[in-house]
Specification:
15 helices, binds zinc ion
């Protein structure tokens, strides 16, 4: 998640905090109850009840284990994700959701992981830890080739070295990026780069995992640029290859990749479920999380946690027989990892309803405790988040931060001007270890912290379900 926090913005936060101070819970009740309708004792009680219900009866870890240890990795377009979606729909129905259904969109071809064998044929002869990028095509047989380094920043630099890449395994320390000038006509730049990559005709390209400790990374989508024998190599094994080259030894590798694309395009699906509102049932708060994951681990922190938290919020509200003003709509997206495909498809399908979305909330930064929310740099939303947190003492610790951040499904919503919020979370070992790696497993999830996630998301969602109508406003995001 991208977060911007300049000195100037800090000042703005201070100013806004100062103006927000009078809206304390007690003051709002006694002095200005008519203008701050959100702060009523019953709302505070409901938040307390939600905290207690989730503490006593939550099914978070059971669901996470069923999803991750039982069903497993959930690559978009895979049979496992379809199983996970069936599982989620059954659970949501049992939790009291209505209108539980799936919504299809066109994914393009699906991709299935196969073998990835890479062996050094000279020097120490080791097997190297390399994983094929999802959606990359494989050569149909074993290939032997020499390694060549690529460390370029621009398209021009790439074109200059391209003749040396022909037939080689490219160890990519960096790849060409568009200059500011090229960004203005990105399509033209992109087409030109794609053509240059085709023409270079290297036999494979290895990207270096960003993490130490043999931790892997994963990427890929039906629209990826590096289409053939693309893979991640661990940092340690990339370092080995570079040390050999520094001593004048050209590494020669034999590789075999078995990942394969489906013959035809397939559909992908989002799961949708409602907990109906009362007075303003046509308006809704969308509580979403992506249920798809990368496939090296089991997607426990990215985003099994967000999935089970979302389901738990609905369970707890139904268990307490709550009657929200607006409808709670739970959406379990797919295709998030391939570029927010599911959330974009949802918004397209529900274009006519967009005005009716009060807010969208999503949790997608692992299972660390929630410490605050980004206001997306919209003053009215900042105020609303503060009012929401002031409704109950349980939420009072939250920091509402003057900053915008994308990188998950909420981005697709606020690009349409819809108030869309993601919590700020304790990172734990999310960025450093579990994110997209082979150790994204239940071991790295702390039950107490996931319980706190569900409690906070439930209370914030409740506030949005019943609070003042939030204005829609185009938000600026930095990427
Ligand atoms: Zn995620």
């Amino acid at each position: 998640m991208t977060t911007i926090f300049s000195r100037q913005l800090r000042l703005a936060v201070l100013v806004l905090s100062a103006t927000a101070l009078p809206y304390s819970f007690a003051y709002a009740q006694s002095q200005v109850a008519d203008t701050t309708q959100v702060a009523s004792p019953s709302t505070a009680t409901i938040a307390q009840n939600l905290f207690a219900e989730i503490a006593q009866n939550n099914q978070l870890m059971l669901n996470l284990e069923e999803l991750c240890d039982g069903i497993g990795p959930r690559l978009t377009g895979s049979p496992q994700l379809r199983l996970a979606q069936q599982w989620a729909m059954e659970k949501l129905k049992a939790y009291g959701a209505v209108n539980v259904h799936e919504e299809a969109y066109d994914l393009g071809k699906s991709w299935t992981r196969g073998v990835a064998h890479v062996r050094l044929m000279n020097a120490n002869g080791m097997s190297l830890d390399v994983r094929q990028l999802a959606w990359s095509e494989s050569s149909p047989r074993k290939v032997q080739a020499e390694v060549v380094l690529m460390n370029v920043k621009t398209l021009d630099e790439f074109k200059r070295i391209a003749p040396r890449l022909h037939g080689k395994i490219v160890l990519a320390l960096s790849v060409p990026r568009a200059t500011r000038e090229q960004e203005k006509n990105f399509k033209q730049y992109s087409d030109e780069l794609n053509k240059a990559i085709q023409a270079a005709n290297f036999s494979a390209i290895f990207f270096v995992s960003g993490r130490e400790g043999n931790l892997q990374d994963m990427e890929g989508s039906p629209k990826m640029r590096y289409k053939k024998n693309a893979a991640f190599i661990t940092k340690e094994h990339a370092n080995l290859l570079q040390r050999l080259m520094a001593r004048g030894i050209t590494p020669k590798l034999e590789f075999e990749f078995g990942g394969r694309l489906s013959k035809d395009g397939v559909k992908a699906y989002n799961v949708v479920a409602d907990f109906p509102g009362t007075e303003q049932a046509d308006e809704m708060v969308v509580l979403g999380a992506h249920q798809d994951s990368w496939d090296l681990g089991t997607g426990a922190t990215d985003n099994g946690v967000g999935t089970v938290v979302t389901m738990e919020v609905l369970r707890a509200m139904h268990a307490l027989k709550l009657k929200p003003k607006r409808t709670l709509r739970v959406v379990l997206f797919s295709g998030e990892e391939q570029g927010l495909l599911g959330s974009k498809a949802y918004l397209k399908t529900h274009a006519a309803e967009q005005e009716k979305i009060q807010a969208m909330l999503t949790q997608d930064a692992g299972g660390g405790r929630i410490t605050g929310f980004l206001d997306m740099k919209v003053e009215a939303w900042y105020t609303a988040l503060n009012e929401a947190k002031e409704q109950s003492k349980e939420l009072n610790f939250l920091d509402i931060t003057y900053a915008a951040g994308g990188g998950s499904d909420h981005q697709a919503f606020f690009e349409q001007g819809i108030p869309a919020f993601a919590p700020i979370q304790d990172p734990l070992d999310y960025r450093s270890h579990t994110w997209h790696s082979q150790v994204d497993t239940v071991d790295h999830v702390v039950p107490d912290q996931v319980m706190q996630n569900a409690q906070v998301m439930a209370a914030m969602t409740w506030a949005m379900l019943n609070g003042k109508k939030l204005p829609h406003q185009a938000a600026q995001v930095s990427r």
